[in-house]
């Protein structure tokens, strides 16, 4: 067992409170004061989740947007965030990006911590998002049922194409194109849009829901595993925002933050969404892509917890 | 203005929601459902807040205890924590220490994130603690009134002496004493005890309260500033857990996590506590030590945010 797997197992053994959902869901779900709190915390690490040369405004945007996307998967309304910030270069740009994203989604900054960076060292940032459930029971990954239809809220691969546009721009002379030029098509990668409104509309109807942060196939693998079913995905039905010859990549690439959800057979989703397959009882693996069962998460997407 | 001060000013400009308390208090205070949420997030950075050679179990304890201490200052009952963990050496010890501290204070782990460390780099950890107010209005730093009495819940300097014991043990040959030997008197530094029960008992009675994380004088400076009063502290009345010739150091050293609070004149605190002075209208500075007004926080304690 790797050190990471061992550590996560140790955390699962500690997280016995029902609100923790066994650390197998996007968020914690905690009844409080007659309502239900939705709580999530994500970290971003320089060299792992972002690069030194990225515009810190984009890093701030993504840090907030990825946490809000977890709230979206629960149909939750954001009520605020706490920021753990490590000081460093470009803090003014970070603050500017934070302001933009918080204003865009009308989320207040409630508090947090500001610390010095270690010497030498990559920086890290953490964000805690706090939400209010708008629908109880709160959707989980574990409710998909045989015969349900499987949907996604939008095309996949946009972030992949955006990152490649950024990398291509960065490798051309600066006089031609700035790496952070928003006209480069990189917005989907730099400034993901959490599907908050879609999540709220879907929450009362779905049998299972999660956001696609690590790639459709890997996240579907998690949903199938949590629900103890097989998700049969038809590759050609999946909407992609990439050239056709990149379809297989688009199914595996992360950072798109669309919602993956299941509905009872024949239901009509209340928001734009595309049916990509159907649920069956568990057979061989939690995900089938066309006629092939996938039995291992390795290689399905970007695997981190 | 330093980069840090500029960044914190930018955050204050963003944190206009009343729950943020202007980022000038220990925690956020957010009405939710029919109750009040108390929210706090602290980070610890290798080389800044802990050292590579420390037992990771102690780092986990301290990370949780310092956040619970912020809840204690609000008279809050902890309802759970979210952990942002960067993988590294000694993760098994970290998990063991986390289990110990969560069981000791009966606090559930609700969720969080596990990430890889940057290469090369110091590690960082973040913790968000969520609490339930047991007393509304929730105590703040800003309510101290002229003629109030000033108290602390216990002696100061214990963490200072504990750190020195650790450092002394580390410099002796390993065969004589292990650096993490708990008999070395270092417990106060390694395993601080948040004053949760005391905070809850005090919350309905205090005019102002905060935990002493950065040294009595610096934290009193913050309370006096927030309350727009002068806190007159009698150095000889302050209980210390250090030799008498270290009294001035003990007033400035952090990491003790006792509670500093003010009560209307003549009240009797419901928990063991020592009166150390009295509040007056603001004159010259927010803190007077004996007959000297302190007008600048520099040098009063360990100044970080």
UniProtKB/TrEMBL annotation, chains A, B:
- Organism, per UniProt? Altericroceibacterium endophyticum
Q: Name the gene that codes for it.
A: thiL
- The PurM-like N-terminal domain covers 25-132
Provide the binding site for ATP: 112-113, 141, 213
What's the top EC group for this one?
transferase
Renumbered residue ranges of the record's region Disordered: 167-196
- What EC number(s) would the UniProt record show? 2.7.4.16
Entry protein name: Thiamine-monophosphate kinase
What is known about what this protein does? Catalyzes the ATP-dependent phosphorylation of thiamine-monophosphate (TMP) to form thiamine-pyrophosphate (TPP), the active form of vitamin B1.
- Listed InterPro entries: PurM-like_C_dom, PurM-like_C_sf, PurM-like_N, PurM-like_N_sf, ThiL-like
Q: Where does Mg(2+) 2 bind?
A: 42, 70
Q: Which Pfam family is one of those matched by this entry?
A: AIRS
* Gene Ontology MF annotations: ATP binding; magnesium ion binding; thiamine-phosphate kinase activity
The entry assigns this protein to a family as follows: Belongs to the thiamine-monophosphate kinase family.
HAMAP family per the UniProt record, alphabetical: TMP_kinase
Give the residues the record marks as binding Mg(2+) 4.
26, 40, 70
Query: Binding positions for substrate?
Result: 49, 255, 302
Could you tell me the keywords of this UniProt record? ATP-binding, Kinase, Magnesium, Metal-binding, Nucleotide-binding, Thiamine biosynthesis, Transferase
**Alphabetical list of CDD domains matching this protein:** ThiL (cd02194)
